[in-house]
From TrEMBL:
Protein species of origin: Chenopodium quinoa
Cofactor note: Binds 4 Cu cations per monomer.
Gene symbol of the encoding locus: LOC110685807
InterPro entries: Cu-oxidase-like_N (IPR011707), Cu-oxidase_2nd (IPR001117), Cu-oxidase_C (IPR011706), Cu-oxidase_fam (IPR045087), Cu_oxidase_CS (IPR033138), Cu_oxidase_Cu_BS (IPR002355), Cupredoxin (IPR008972), CuRO_1_LCC (IPR034288)
Transmembrane segments: none
Keywords: Apoplast, Copper, Glycoprotein, Lignin degradation, Metal-binding, Oxidoreductase, Repeat, Secreted, Signal
Plastocyanin-like domain boundaries: 39-153, 168-314, 413-548
Catalyzed reactions: 4 hydroquinone + O2 = 4 benzosemiquinone + 2 H2O
NCBIfam families registered for this protein in UniProt: laccase (TIGR03389)
Pfam families referenced in this protein's UniProt entry, alphabetically: Cu-oxidase (PF00394), Cu-oxidase_2 (PF07731), Cu-oxidase_3 (PF07732)
One annotated GO biological process: lignin catabolic process
GO cellular component, one term: apoplast
Gene Ontology MF terms: copper ion binding; hydroquinone:oxygen oxidoreductase activity
Function summary: Lignin degradation and detoxification of lignin-derived products.
Official protein name in the record: Laccase
Length: 566
């Protein structure tokens, strides 16, 4: 099931990682970390199916970016594949430097075949686990990897130092070409086929065919503690994750420390990261790490379980691992309870700077719909909207249009609230409520340094569903969440303004709402979208134009010379 050389491999691997990470804790100045990303097609086999996939440097998942808080990171991306490419450094704030953020046609034109672009950015005020991924079409199905930011020199973790650290990236695998599936789905007006498997570090595990080469394992020693950096890189699935027989202590989410708490399973939405401590305190054996979809409405999903192995040193590979007891796939109460436990550390060293006064209140409804499509299978095409507006992607990058004052590229008239209030989470609604699809993107303009409160409200247009929303360029505080319709009179009184979780991606609960707050101190054009790739493609997205502040030090930086052109 797992190669017999597992023990020797992991001993050598762990020694290298220990030496590598130890260098971060030696006295040093802020450094420049240089990386070369070659976008190339590589043949990969999973589930007894071989196919060419788009990769970085031939790796699936791609290489890990290592840096320290305060470092400068320079990544030259050269595109050798047939698809246009852009890379997003998910969760990095990119202060004044949207040119390095990555979403195609939002902050940059894509990197065309045979060309290169340098992402040059500083890691300021952040430490922990983030990740990077393609941000064009569905290419992030295989183009993704981890970002590990170590604390500043002389600064330790606010929790016990682990013996070793491990990256665990949860993903999805399709036996057929993903871009072809998406193209076919768009032509038919239907969602693409769901994935054939989930993966852990690119491998589905022994519950699937052709398991011998495709099971990930990490070796542990009795009595030692490990830090697992868990990333949900899946395209369309929120996931539960657990380890058989072992408790996990959650210590960080989205590269922000939290008040530690123990749990048997975590819930992690696409785009989110979670760091947990695990102590190898069980009888030496082999234990499955497992992940499976959370979906609490009757919508088809890939409900198969991916596994990896948590293997004690010296235990033979012939021992059959045990499976963890994950929550039921539709366990809404567990999901809500888990998210309520997430609280910012809020210490003098790591304060929670929650905006207490709000300058701008926004209320966005999330809607799914079906528009007429004479050439589609059912005569309709699925669509999605915020405040009944389906986002239209431009042909010119929005940040370039904003910086160079180009006209006719976008409008800044996105409404602060839906045009027509209704019973958002009442009986299922099949009408689109006059969903608008304009000829150009409609953006929301935000004054520099203003404080914003945004309530994201799920609706029962076609169906309620949980939606993970990611805001580029910012972290935000999740001050409140609830089931049903948001009550602007009663619900704010229940907001947590002391130690709410600070994130870059948050799940809006099924048939419910989530309230976030942030200070708009990062000028530029910043994307916000559902991190379910299916819904993003249907138009469930928007961009904010945050105005420049007073003076050049509070304004968008000049663009790099090699900025791609559309």
């Amino acid at each position: 099931m797992v190669a017999s050389s597992l023990s020797n491999f992991h001993h050598a691997y762990n020694c290298l990682i220990f030496i590598f990470l130890s260098t971060f804790f030696l006295p040093s100045e802020a450094a420049v970390k240089n990386y070369q990303f070659d976008i190339q097609v590589t043949n990969v086999s999973r589930l007894c199916h071989a196919k060419p996939i788009v990769t970085v440097n031939g790796m699936y998942p791609g290489p890990t970016i290592y840096a320290r808080e305060g470092d400068r990171v320079v990544i030259n991306v050269t595109n050798h594949a047939k698809y246009n490419m852009s890379i997003h450094w998910h969760g990095l704030k990119q202060y004044r430097n949207g040119w390095a953020d990555g979403p195609a046609y939002v902050t940059q034109c894509p990197i065309q075949t045979g060309t290169s672009y340098v992402y040059d950015f500083n890691v300021t005020g952040q430490r922990g686990t983030l990740w990077w991924h393609a941000h064009i079409s569905w290419l992030r199905a295989t183009v993704y990897g981890a970002i590990v930011i170590m604390p500043k020199e002389g600064t330790s973790y606010p929790f016990p130092q682990p013996h070793l650290e491990e990256n665990l990236i949860l993903g999805e695998w399709w036996n057929t070409d993903v871009e072809t599936l998406v193209k076919q789905g768009n032509q038919l007006g239907l969602p693409p086929n769901m994935s054939d498997a989930h993966t852990i570090n690119g491998k589905p595990g022994p519950l699937f065919p052709c398991l011998e080469k495709h099971t990930y394992a990490m070796e542990v020693e009795q009595g030692k503690t490990y830090l697992l950096r868990i990333i949900n890189a899946a395209l369309n699935d929120e996931l539960f994750f657990g380890i058989a027989g072992h408790s996990m202590t959650v210590v960080e989410i989205d590269a922000v420390y939290v008040k530690p708490f123990a749990t048997s399973s975590i819930l992690i939405a696409p785009g989110q990261t979670t760091n947990v401590l695990v102590r190898a305190d069980q009888p030496p054996s082999r234990y499955f790490m497992a992940t499976r979809t959370f979906m609490d409405v009757p919508i088809p999903v890939d409900n198969k379980t991916a596994t990896a192995i948590f293997q004690y040193k010296g235990v033979p590979n012939t021992i059959i691992p045990s499976l963890p007891q994950l929550p039921a796939p539709n366990d809404t109460s567990y999901a809500l309870s888990y998210n309520r436990k997430l609280r910012s550390l809020n210490t003098p060293q790591f304060p929670a700077k929650v905006p207490l006064k709000v300058d701008r209140k926004l209320f966005f409804t999330i809607g799914l719909g079906a528009n007429p499509c004479p050439t589609c299978v059912n005569g309709t095409r699925f669509t999605a909207s915020l405040n009944n507006i389906t986002f239209v992607m431009p042909k010119t990058a929005l940040l370039q249009a904003h910086y160079f004052n180009m006209s006719g590229v976008f409008k800044t008239d996105f409404p602060d609230k839906p045009p027509k209030p209704f019973n958002y989470t009442g009986a299922p609604l099949t009408a689109n409520l006059r969903t608008v699809q304009s000829t150009m993107p409609r953006l929301s303009k935000i004054a520099f340094n203003s404080t914003v409160e945004l309530v994201l409200q799920d609706t029962n247009l076609l169906s309620v569903e949980s939606h993970p929303f990611h805001l580029h360029g910012y972290n935000f505080f999740v001050v409140g969440t609830g089931v049903g319709n948001f009550d602007p009179i009663k619900d704010p009184a229940k907001f947590n303004l002391v130690d709410p979780p600070e994130r870059n991606t948050v799940g809006v609960p099924t048939g419910g709402w989530t309230a976030i707050r942030f200070r708009a101190d990062n000028p530029g054009v910043w994307f916000m979208h559902c991190h379910l790739e299916l819904h993003t493609g249907w138009g469930l997205k928007i961009a904010f134009v945050v105005e420049d502040g007073p003076g050049p030090e509070y304004s968008v930086l000049p663009p790099p010379k090699d900025l791609p052109q559309c």
